Amino acid sequence: MSESCCGDVAVEALVTVCRAVSQLEMGSLAVASFGTKGNINLLHDFDSPFTAEAGVKMVSNLMFKQENTIADESVVDLLNY
C-alpha cells in the first residue's frame, strides 16, 4: 500500500463499507489489519457496536508502512486467523 500510495483509497473504501453495513443494519462487522508474516491486528471486533468513535479509532490504527506483504504470504495468515 505504501509503495503505490493507496492508503487514502483504502481508508475511503473501508469507511464506505462500514457506513453501508451500519445503515443497512446488516449485523456485526469486524476489521483486521495485516502486514508482514504473523502481524495481524484486530481493529474492530464482531462483539463491539460500530460507532463513530470506533471508526475513528479503527482508521487511526492503519499505517500502510510495511513493504510488499503479498510475498510474505500474509493473506494466508489472515485467513487462518
TrEMBL record:
Keywords: ATP-binding, Nucleotide-binding. GO terms for molecular function: ATP binding. It comes from the Eukaryota. This is Midasin.
